Amino acid sequence: MNIRFEQVSKQFSNHMAISDLNFTIQDGEFVCLLGPSGCGKTTTLMMLAGLYQPTKGNIYFGDQVINHLEPKDRNIGMVFQSYALYPHMTVRDNIAFPLKQQKVPKKIRYGRAEKTARLVRLENYLDRKPSQLSGGQQQRVALARALVKEPNLLLLDEPMSNLDARLKIEMRDELRQLQKQLKITTIMVTHDQEEAMAMADRIAILDRGEIQQFDTPEQLFAYPKNVFVARFLGNPPMNFLDAEIIHELDGMIVHGEGYHFYLQKQLHIPNKTKITLGIRPHDLQVVSERRGIFSAVVTNIEHLGREKLLSATMGEQPIRFFVSNDQKIKYGDRIYLSPNLEAIHIFSKETGENLLWSREVSYEQVEGKTGLI
Amino acid sequence: MDIGSNVTPAPKMKSPTLLRKSHRKIIISYIILTFLSLPLFFMYLWLFLSSISSEMVAGIIPKQITFENWRFLWENVEVGSRQLPSIWLATWNTLLLAGGLTIIEVIISVMAGYALSRMEFPGRTFFLRSVILLHAFPSVALLIAVFYVLDTLGLIDTLWGVMLVKAALQIPMSTYIIKGFFDDVPWDVEWSALIDGCNRIKAWYQVVIPLVKPGIAAISIFSFLAGWSEFLLLYTFIFDDQNITLATYLQKIIGDFQMVDYGLLTAAGLFYMLPVIFFFIFTQKSLMQMNMGGNKRV
Question: What positions does the domain ABC transmembrane type-1 occupy (chain B) (predicted)?
């Protein structure tokens, strides 16, 4: 079942939670809605669940507009952040509850509940009450309850946020496998970028009620559409430096405080455009003074096991990068860095759009008359 | 106090000094509490003793044990020249009143409490505030007005009339209490029920109501006890001896104060109180769960 948002907006009494959302989710896809808190991702999920109704626009399940369809008629399963188990029922009754509402005879519904419980390895806990289970087990109950009626759509609202780190990684795998095995279209809300990158086929990054970019994890990481996406994805985050583009006879120069280098690509942007230069920590290398583009003073060293994460300052601006363990660098050393010029990102200072990513775009649009798509 | 033992890293045994100190605290509180509860205890003791003795020495020591005072259990007593109706009729009427009151009150306040806690409707805040105001309103001030209303409705001198009036006076408070319980039920659980295929009403009684059971227990107990101990409304609105309850029965024993039979009065009083005491002992756990923090979303 395809899911399509068409110009969907949601207004709460005092603010606009979602504005003009447009996207399509393919059948069987695992999509993450990722964004900081208050970005509208949970609102989007609630509209899919039918707990909120869009103020404007249409949501389609397949060809059918479902804006005003009751949650119970949507054939969806949902796992809440708090799991929302029914504390007065046993695990068996919890899982069988959706079937009971469909008036499935007792014997059949308990049979199906047990089968689903086996799927999430809960078969030994069927007679317990939710309060007698660990957090991970409770989450599995919630998952089984969502899956038991074989929904067309599975909604997950930050399902892992209450689990400890190790269990989280385990559950990620499990959930992902289960989803592929059952081929259920799944939409997960999360604020944890790692989780989203690990699990999703595609990620929609939301900010202030708008989709910033909707793409595969690889694409998002390699070609962030704007500063927000670039900043949000990647850990440690991308380094951002203020600079300016200067046109020269033999090419374009990126000119910043205490550094400059030739740009390898040709950009259609005016002379002296203010830009934000983005470089991922992995794309910086410590080099000799002669070959260095940035000069910085080391302010902190973190040992991560396989490598070291260094923080340094260039004048006022902080910059972070990785070095291998055998490089002897001390606190306070002056070092010289060279970026991988293939992997740098150039964002418009004014609009935050990635200028390399949309390099086909003409001058006028970059200047913000129409804005980017 | 031995401070050293407090900071030693080995926690294998609690310092005996500390232990003894906490013990001492408990003992002192028990002594104070015992001392303060003694008058109450003697009150009950006196009530019991005087109900089974014909005369008391020094006001508290029974001289002779007798069951004469309990004669109301097997015969209709006479006070002055009047014969009182059977105590069993009064007991039955009291049960009827308290039970009916409980049923009316619980049904209405559970529904009202849910609406106030969970639904958006114009005037909700105003309604909630006026509920508190209604509770604080002195019901005595309403007696005469209510008399006219009951009279017009033909409910004067009936237990039904008193039941309705009492329910009206009680519902604000129990609504407020049960609203607090509904406030504590997470939205997620209710939403979850909606997604799992319930409509709002089904979700309400299959998922939400079971979660506020302690609250329902609490308001049931409260309203039952309130009905059991009601006196003023009965005294004002009921004249027929057929509608006598235990409270008015006691009042009739006192009669005109000239020649009160204290033995009979204490025995009947004890009879009236016993169910309440047992009830309280068995239900105090539910009462203690009560959450008076019903002031969310005011």
Answer: 91-283
